[in-house]
């Protein structure tokens, strides 16, 4: 295993740990996006550009956007119910 692959694996492991340890749901969504970018780098290092492109679209962009939009909608509904 070349050193670049080791660094990419450590970066992915650290990103996954950060996502798991995050308490706030919005912070967790942001960290999950960073974790997704780490996976993209990992897939590129291991020479899988097609998988990297899929991971970029899904875990790096689409999933965090949907999650943050859902959180915002739930919080808005909770504010309306309190009034």
User: What is the number of E strands?
Assistant: 0
* Average predicted confidence as pLDDT: 90
Structural class: mainly alpha
Q: What Rg do the Cα atoms give?
A: 16 Å
Portion in helices? over 70%
Main sheet overview: none
Low-confidence stretches: none
What spatial form do the alpha-carbon principal axes imply?
elongated
User: What is the rounded distance between the termini?
Assistant: 59 Å
List SSEs in N-to-C order.
HHH
Number of domains: 1
User: β content, as a range?
Assistant: under 5%
Structure description:
This protein has helices at 3-21, 25-45, 49-82. By secondary structure, it is mainly alpha-helical. The chain has one domain. Helix 1 (3-21) packs antiparallel against helix 2. The protein is elongated, with a radius of gyration of 16 Å.
Short recap of the structure:
With about 80 residues, this protein is mainly alpha-helical. The protein is about 90% helix and about 0% strand.
Which features characterize this protein?
single chain; 83 residues; mainly alpha; 3 helices
């Amino acid at each position: 295993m070349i050193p670049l692959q080791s660094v990419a694996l450590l970066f992915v492991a650290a990103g996954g740990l950060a996502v798991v340890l995050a308490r706030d749901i919005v912070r967790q969504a942001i960290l999950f996006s960073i974790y997704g970018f780490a996976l993209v780098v990992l897939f590129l290092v291991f020479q899988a550009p097609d998988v990297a492109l899929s991971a970029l679209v899904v875990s790096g962009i689409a999933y965090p956007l949907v999650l943050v939009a859902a959180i915002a909608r739930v919080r808005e509904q909770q504010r309306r119910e309190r009034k």
